[in-house]
Amino acid sequence: MPREAVSPVGAPTDWVSLGPASQLLGVDPDTLRRWADTGRVRAFATPGGHRRFSRADLDRIVAGRRPANRRLAALGATPARLNRAYARAYRDGAPVAPDRLPASTREALRADGRRLVAVLLAYLDATRPTDRERWEGEALELIGSAALRLAEADAEVPEVVAIYLRARQPLLSELAAIGRRRALDTGQLVALFERALGLLDRLLLHLVETHRAAIAAREGRSLSWT
């Protein structure tokens, strides 16, 4: 059962709704819900069923991260290093974009992918919510552009998802390798992966939704998930 305060004490500003709270911490909303369920963050449910989270607990978590906060570039995760990791992964395994796609599409996807690597690293290093929002917005634009290119190339949804999953694996592998090389403690590594996976999941949803909308528009029909 969730550990939620039944009768919250304090002014309304002492309690923060789910969206702003998750942005403040840089974690996915589902992660914040789990933290509330396990008592890591105090929370209560409004009569309408919406959670409110203790600002004092949120500030405590943010403050606790600051002394150990090190930029990924200082740990070795630069865009150049990540792009070399991608190049190695593609040499050793199947390419992200299949050969049947037009060469122009594959080259555009590679260019967008290189920029996306830099944007993802900037997002993970950002400490202010406004900066995270800015970098996430650019990441969504890049993914939306990729979705439109794949729709124009008649890629089916399963193929689009497979391309995305192959493309994100080198990033996750490199983050794990950095954790091992730099001996990050468990809390740091978990927080890093939660931030990365939260954004990557949101990008996947945007990719599929944009691709489906583009296909539906080309076929002159309304978008439906059924």
Question: Any overview of this molecule?
Answer:
There is one protein chain. By secondary structure, this protein is mainly α. The chain folds into 2 domains: 12-66, Multidrug-efflux Transporter Regulator, Chain: A, Domain 2; 69-219, Globin-like (Orthogonal Bundle), CATH 1.10.490. The chain has helices at 18-25, 29-37, 55-65, 72-75, 79-92, 103-125, 129-152, 157-181, 186-219, and strands at 15-17, 43-45, 51-54. Strand 2 (43-45) and strand 3 form a beta hairpin. Helix 1 (18-25) packs across helix 2 (29-37). The protein is globular, with a radius of gyration of 20 Å. The two termini are 33 Å apart.
Largest sheet: 3 strands, antiparallel
N-C termini distance: 33 Å
Cα Rg: 20 Å
CATH architectural grouping of the largest domain: Orthogonal Bundle
Using the coordinates shown, work out and report the CATH topology of the largest domain. Answer: Globin-like
